[in-house]
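Researcher: I've got a protein sequence and the SMILES for zinc ion. Could you write out the 3D structure of the bound complex as structure tokens? I'd like something to compare against our soaking experiments later this week.
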Amino acid sequence: MPEPTEQELRPIVQNTRDLCRELIKRPSVTPDDQGCQPMLAERLQTSGFTCEPMRCGDVDNLWARRGAEGPLFVLAGHTDVVPTGDLSAWTHPPFDAVVEGDLLYGRGAADMKGGVAAMITAAERFCKVHPDHRGSLAFLLTSDEEGPAVDGTAKVVERLSARDEHIDYCLLGEPSSAQVLGDTVRHGRRGSTGATLTVHGTQGHVAYPHLADNPVHKALAALNTLAGAQWDNGNEHFPATTFQISNIKAGTGATNVIPATLEVQFNLRFSTELTTRAIWQRTDEILASEGLQPDDYTINWQVSGEPFLTEPAALTDAAIAAIKDICGTDTTLDTGGGTSDGRFIAPTGAQLIELGPCNATIHQIDECVSVTDLGLLSATYENILSRMLL
Ligand SMILES: [Zn+2]
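Model: Sure. Here is the predicted complex with zinc ion in place.
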């Protein structure tokens, strides 16, 4: 397929821009959906989708499916946005959806109301032209991706699994692009786990150290070894795992008091060479090897997500070819960035990629997206659907 002409692209750009503006005007700060999902459900119903709201706690989720056969192709995303920050710092009010030149400004423009709007308009055109497409097309939307993400995508996936509804392919419209639209497609993400380590000691006078037990001194060697450890070498798709201390706290503020405890927070972003279990075990081993006995400390671990990877196959091929067709851009497959809701969907065995607008302004003051890119993105999504469901 050749790149779309300007004339072909114009209505796609306008339609996607208008929908994105409607979404931005609803100040849907996590987890408050502000009616975004009902508005989208109404449009999807018109295109033949069966819509099933799945509210969990104070989180709105929407599952909308068109067709009963496999394979099941899912377009996934979130309607919630992060807070605006200082309102007076914005050039245009963050929920006014002002268009200036080719840029549409607003909280969520890039992360990820632009992607959601492009997915909806792509599905609308695709279903109109190919009402009898093969397999099924579905939307999975949540209003809690930016928050705790407990009652969002994870819960929907749980419900789908419970009734044997299996996702074969998933396209997540998160802002994956770096410099130009389509230059980066994510086909996996690193895992993330972190801990609060509290090292116990005995408070005392610095002049009488024999009557105290300094937790800072006890922990120094272990912290140094943790920070310097080679956790793995990464692999073909992932960089080496990294360990970072983010907070460290001890002492009363007085110069003559040995503190009673030391508290350290750290995080690891890790590759598919490791699991959270392996990391936790190795951490305990390092602490022991540097003289910290189990009685000397408590450690509370948090898991944000295990790493996941979609090996290059049908879906990545379709995305790479579609981006070349529509945008004329060569794509890099990448596993960078933070975690995403892909971490809940990929473990079901689905092939999963993330493709969306440029991410330079996400979560920032003056978040914005190129209006032309919104149209190109929608055309690219439609092209991917044609490759996968015709
Ligand atoms: Zn996002």
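Model: The two ends are 14 Å apart (CA to CA). Residues 78, 111-112, 145, 174 surround zinc ion (CB under 6 Å).
Researcher: Great, I'll pass this along to the crystallography team.
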